[in-house]
Amino acid sequence: MVMWVFGYGSLIWKAGFHYDDRLFGFIKGYRRVFYQGSTDHRGTQEYPGRTVTLEAAEREVCWGVAYKISRMEDEQIALTYLEVREKQYDKKAYIDFFTDPMALTPAVSGVMVYIASPDRKLNPNYLGPASIEEIAKQIVRAEGPSGPNRDYLFQLEKALIQYGCEDKHVMGLANEVRRVLSEMELIFS
């Protein structure tokens, strides 16, 4: 039995597990948003970082990478690793993955994806929507064991650009973070 995992955040550039194949493509009916708080990787309890989750959005797509894991042993190791890495994401979904925007049938069905739901009872780290300025300020301030929150954002932007994907939310936020950092540099220089 083959397992497929869809990455739409840091999994795009850093899988952290063995895989047999990797496809760039998209899922339908979702968009990527910086609404999930990170208190374990890119922030702390006092200053949570912001990472991406998926939000249901009719007629939208979210580009990312699907990883194929064929061997049972690799699958078990990957699942154990992902359950720790994605522990602040309270939902798993199995969805269709497409590689061709014109295709009517998916390239792969049943791709597993981790989602942080907006239900604060199940997901206490959900931060939700905010203005781009507010999210940018939070990202600039946050840092956790995996490094500064802005590095996560910039790595995501870079990885998407390398695949030829222009995600307006990610790029707009990255530009706002750069603007805030530039202002701070002027103030402290």
Automatic annotation (TrEMBL):
The entry's cellular-component GO terms read: cytoplasm
GO MF annotation list: glutathione specific gamma-glutamylcyclotransferase activity; transferase activity
Q: Which Gene3D superfamilies match?
A: Gamma-glutamyl cyclotransferase-like
- Where is the signal peptide, in residue numbers? none
Could you say which EC number(s) this protein's record lists? 4.3.2.7
User: Which Pfam families does its entry note?
Assistant: ChaC (PF04752)
| Main subcellular location of this protein, as a coarse class | cytoplasm
- Which cofactors does this gene product need? Mn(2+)
Alphabetical keyword list: Cytoplasm, Lyase, Transferase
The compartments listed are:
Cytoplasm
Q: Does the keyword Cytoplasm apply?
A: yes
Mind listing the GO biological process terms from this record? glutathione catabolic process
| Highest taxon in the source lineage | Eukaryota
Task: Name the InterPro entries on file.
Answer: ChaC (IPR006840), GGCT-like (IPR013024), GGCT-like_sf (IPR036568)
Name the family.
Answer: Belongs to the gamma-glutamylcyclotransferase family.
Q: What is this protein called?
A: glutathione-specific gamma-glutamylcyclotransferase
